[in-house]
Amino acid sequence: MSKQQRNRRKATRPATAATVTAPAVEPVATRAPAPSSRRNFLTALAGAAVVGGVAYGGMAWWQGRAPAASQVAAAGKASQRVRPTVVQGDGVNGPKGMVWVPGGEFAMGSDSKLAQSNEKPAHPVRVHGFWMDRSHVTNAQFREFVKATGYVTTAEQKPDWETIRVQSPPGTPRPPDNMLVPAAMVFVGTDRPVNLNDWSQWWQLVPGASWKAPQGPGSSIEGKDDHPVVQVSYEDAVAFAKWANKRLPTEAEWEFAARGGLEQATYAWGDDYQPDGQPMANIWDKTAKGRFPVVPKVSAKAGGAIGTQPVGTFPPNGYGLVDMTGNAWQWVADWFRGDYFQQQAKAQGNKPIDNPAGPQDSWDPDDTSAPPAAPRRVTRGGSFLCNEDYCLSYRPSARRGNDPFNPMSHIGFRLVSDAPKPAG
């Protein structure tokens, strides 16, 4: 057994079943039901017949259907605008490629009409200052890491049964070894409008998909050095962070940074979806790309193909951070509980919570295909697939739980550093 596989076994469960208490989580009215044929879908793909775990923990968040466009328009002008000073590290005064996030107190979460129950309630939190990568970790940076260390990502390894078992319903039999092959989840879209209750119509488990070939064999990242690296698991992100002498941000740090000095704004850039008609993030804009999840044949001028774009394509937020929402989801350090914000607000009341590091275990009752206490890590920021008809997670407060060993073609990460604050 490799060192990476041993680490997997250590990380598969945040707590035993006996230590997890079922919370009282209100049902999410806007969620579509989970697919009833998930197991059949996973066991029939591409002849690989991988049962469950590679994809189990990563799909429930995709069931969150967005509110209607009228609700988006009525979300309100709740932000209080602050003009922070942008401080970029230059390798002498702060780490190069990172920006200083000064920390402070803010309202974490949201009580907006657009918010899912796991984002509620908004509650006072205080974070300390930190440095954050200006952008997602890119393909070029991840290639440098792999070249220096010989690291093999989760998607490139034979799946470990233990990481599958804890994401599967009780009693799920262990599949034969020859059915467990390296694979990852790939967005493939559809050729016509479909019922949005069944994500299996636009996702496929593709053997051979990895960070080097995000859509599977025959695909490539050639010419995409400045795109976010995707098809990386939580484990992969942690390994890169250790090599880079950095760490994943906490969920609180991530949201504070994403807001860019705006208090309870709908988006990372403010309350207007497209100020002055200008797109502000790489998301599924149906004006250019049509109805989700239909993959259109569009020209580059009309919006280009569906996928990641170079980091920094869109304007930075108030702290100088680019792509805090859209482009690719971002792993953060915390375990995911759907009721965590409710727990925090109940315990602390109106007193600010100082530098929260997240819960001690996971709880995701919305993923009905897996045990509610199956391990989940938080992902934030949404991706190029988010849109107002289905996902709407390109908001700073939006949060989802994901299987830590589930690489997907729209999940990446960025890191933070505890280097000394800037001089002056």
From TrEMBL:
<feature type="transmembrane region" description="Helical">
    <location>
        <begin position="41"/>
        <end position="62"/>
    </location>
</feature>
<protein>
    <submittedName>
        <fullName>Formylglycine-generating enzyme family protein</fullName>
    </submittedName>
</protein>
<feature type="compositionally biased region" description="Basic residues">
    <location>
        <begin position="1"/>
        <end position="12"/>
    </location>
</feature>
<feature type="region of interest" description="Disordered">
    <location>
        <begin position="344"/>
        <end position="380"/>
    </location>
</feature>
<feature type="domain" description="Sulfatase-modifying factor enzyme-like">
    <location>
        <begin position="96"/>
        <end position="416"/>
    </location>
</feature>
<keyword id="KW-0812">Transmembrane</keyword>
<dbReference type="InterPro" id="IPR051043">
    <property type="entry name" value="Sulfatase_Mod_Factor_Kinase"/>
</dbReference>
<keyword id="KW-0472">Membrane</keyword>
<feature type="region of interest" description="Disordered">
    <location>
        <begin position="1"/>
        <end position="36"/>
    </location>
</feature>
<keyword id="KW-1133">Transmembrane helix</keyword>
<feature type="compositionally biased region" description="Low complexity">
    <location>
        <begin position="13"/>
        <end position="35"/>
    </location>
</feature>
<dbReference type="Pfam" id="PF03781">
    <property type="entry name" value="FGE-sulfatase"/>
</dbReference>
<dbReference type="InterPro" id="IPR016187">
    <property type="entry name" value="CTDL_fold"/>
</dbReference>
<dbReference type="InterPro" id="IPR042095">
    <property type="entry name" value="SUMF_sf"/>
</dbReference>
<dbReference type="InterPro" id="IPR005532">
    <property type="entry name" value="SUMF_dom"/>
</dbReference>
<dbReference type="InterPro" id="IPR006311">
    <property type="entry name" value="TAT_signal"/>
</dbReference>
